[in-house]
Structure formats: C-alpha cells, structure tokens
Amino acid sequence: MNNNAIPLPKGFTWTTIPLNQPINTSEPNSESVILASANNTTSTESVVSADIQDRLYKFLKNHYVANSTLRMEYSADYLSWLLSWNSNVTLYNNEDSLYKGPLLFSLAIVSEKKPHGSIYGYISGLPINCIIDGERKLVLLVNLLCVHSKLREKRMAGVLISELKRKVSIHGIDCSMNTSGAYYERFNRCSVKYCHRALNAPKLIDLGYWECRENPAKKRDEVAQGDRNFEIRMLLKSLDPDSMRDGIEPVTEMVIEELQQFLIKEMNGRYRVKYDFSDINLVRNMFSIIPNVNYTFFRRNTDGVIVDIYSFTLIMSNLINSDQNLLRAYGFHSVSTESISENIRETMIMAKEFLGADEFIAIPTLQNEDAITDRSLQFREGSGDLHYNFRQWDLNKLDSSFIDWTIPMCNPNDIGVTMC
C-alpha cells in the first residue's frame, strides 16, 4: 500500500476539504473521519482553513459543468447536502461493519506558495451502502471532479482520480460509481439521455433556450409570435395546479420511518443497482427537505397508505455571456405504485408553482421512462448524454458472471440509484 501522495507539478500541493460538517479555524479534530485518511496525512498536505470552503464553491462555480450555453452553480448548502448522505450511517463492506459516517474523501490541489489561495483541482468520494445484484456493497460515489483550465493540459484529472483511489484503498473500498458526459468503454455500464421540460415557457422561449413548435392552425401571413403563443398554451395545458390530487404532503421527521419501509418494499427485486435503505439515517439524509436544495413530498391513498414519493433538487444555472439565469429542478427519486406520469406531472407543478423553477429535467432511470415517453407531459430529449461508470479497482475479485465487460451490465430499467 502506497502511503505517499501522488506527486504534483512543481508549485502545487494536496489539501483535504471538509464539507459535510461544520469546521472551525483551528486544526482539524484528529478523531474526525471526514478528512480522507485522517491518520495518514502526508507531509505534502496542508492544513485547511475554514474559508477554503467558500473558495471551493467559487472554484466549482467558475470551472465545473458548463457547455456553450449554461454553467451550473452549486450552492454551499447543496454541496453540503450532497456530500453528507452517509452522516450517522453505518457503512459496510460485504457484511462487515466498517465505519459510522460521516466519511468523505474530499481532495483539492492548491498552490504550494499560497495554500490558502486559489484552488486548481478538486474531487470528492462519498462511500455509500448499495445493493448490486442482491449483494450489499460499499460503493464510492465519485463526484465533482473539476480541474482549473490552467492545469487541464497537464492531465490533472487522472492525477486526482489516482490520489482518490490511493486514499480510499487505505479504507478497504475497491468499488466506485460515477456519472460523466464522456464515454469510457471500459467502465461504462449504462448510458441515458437528459430529458427536458419547460416550466416557465415564456422565459425559456424569449431567451432562445426553448424552441417553439409550429402552430398548425397558424395562417400564412402570421408572424412567429403565433408559434410562441401556441407553444406556451400547450406547455401550460398539462400543468394546471387545480388538477393535483389530494393527499400530497411535505416529508417531515414523523414520516421518515414509514418512507423508509415504502422505499424498501418498492425497490426490492426491481433494480440490479440500488441504494441500501436499511439504515434509516440514509433515508433521512437524502429525503429530508432542505430549502432551496432538496424537496420531497409524499401522497397517501384513501386508506392512508403511502403510494407516491415526489423528490427533486434545485440548481441554479447561469447563462454564458449573459446576466440571466435559470432555476432548474432535477427529478431525484420519484416512486409511484399508481401512475408515475401523474407523479412526475405533479412534481413539475410543485417545482413551478411553489418554488419558481424554470425547467424540469429527468433521466429514464427508476420508473421515469414511462413518464418521459408520455406525450402529454411534453418532455424533449436533450443532446447531452449521461454515462454510468462502475469501477471495481481490485479486478482480481471480479466474478466474470457478475459483469461482462463487452456487454453493458445495466439498461436504464436496472438503475435504481440517482446521482446529483
């Protein structure tokens, strides 16, 4: 086992950034497990000051997930929620109890001369209990890999991944999962398309972000304004707030246990890859409402039994070369025993009417495909791909019957996990 950090180019060094619990400005608590390999810190790692969290948020805001049109802006509260799912969760590897969360591997590359200055690279790894083909497995959710433009030619993404791999191997974690826009044939097990649905149609159309369909009833001498009004009418038609069913309530602490039992029952035997919801703290951490970050609602039938879970997250996206932004709602973990189309429709209504979201985005995992293909909901397939990558770093332990490297292990219907 290599106890030495991966070498960096001259002038740069490693540091760890705690994100899933409050930190003070003194030296980190030696008993804290959220600092990756807390008892194995190397001499090349610098002590973290509290304000590095704010600098990380700014770094990701300026350099993470952008295309020619939009750049996603993760808030501080969003990152704290995303990286604290395993807080107070007992983490297992096979059937052996390993740790009591939170456990987070949070690595950054900073300037050696100014360790409290700019961040030039970042990666996170969150261990989470999953069930893969019926076997409980501790899986590292790799997220937020980001490299400053000045270092991208130096292949720092691979260096960040290698250092994360070295860190987690100390803890006996050898399996990871991440999503990416790029396709990696060796690791890819499933690929899906983002699907979009305009909520604030006038805004998206006027910004040129949403293309109008042609109004079939438009006369030849009418201008394109006819298409705009037709598109807005069509999009608003299926999102009437008065059409929502009775019995929808926000999730509170009082229903977390009931929510857990519902999830376990509905996920059982349905997906090959899914979260292990047997620890109630995972359910609490993932589905409790956090304002402006994560929202979960549920619905009971007339017998008082939970039959629907509505779940979505909110992320602000900034338009490139513009002072405009879009509030986008991302479908997170919706489950229904009756109609997933109605579930998603009501989710979009809540995101639009209660929180002012401009757009709703979903991917065809869990039950979502039936809703996405429902023409009445008017989803449009985006141009971006989302690839699910699974890495079993200790390849000698792979059972050939478990994964076929030439045939994707999963189709979208096998995936019961969502990553943000």
Ordered list of secondary-structure elements with their pairings:
Blueprint: E1 12-16, E2 45-46, H1 52-63, E3 70-73, H2 76-82, E4 90-93, E5 96-100, E6 105-111, E7 119-132, E8 135-147, H3 156-169, E9 175-180, E10 188-198, H4 201-206, H5 225-237, E11 248-250, H6 256-267, E12 273-275, H7 280-287, E13 294-300, E14 306-319, E15 325-331, E16 335-336, H8 340-353, E17 359-362, H9 368-372, E18 380-392, E19 415-416
Parallel strand pairs: 1-2, 8-9, 12-19, 15-17
Antiparallel strand pairs: 1-6, 3-14, 4-5, 6-7, 7-8, 7-12, 9-18, 10-17, 10-18, 11-13, 13-14, 14-15, 14-16
Helix pairs in contact: 6-7
Low-confidence stretches: 21-49, 219-224, 393-411
Helical coverage, percent range: 10-25%
Taken from the alpha-carbon principal axes, the silhouette is globular
Instruction: Please outline the major beta sheet.
Output: 17 strands, mixed
Whole-Å distance between the termini?
Answer: 32 Å
Nearest-integer average pLDDT: 78
Structure characterization notes:
The protein is built from 9 helices and 19 strands. The chain is globular, with a radius of gyration of 22 Å. About 13% of the residues have low confidence. The protein is α+β, with helices and mostly antiparallel strands and 420 residues long. The strands form 2 sheets. It has a 17-stranded mixed sheet that branches. A two-stranded antiparallel ribbon has the order 4-5.
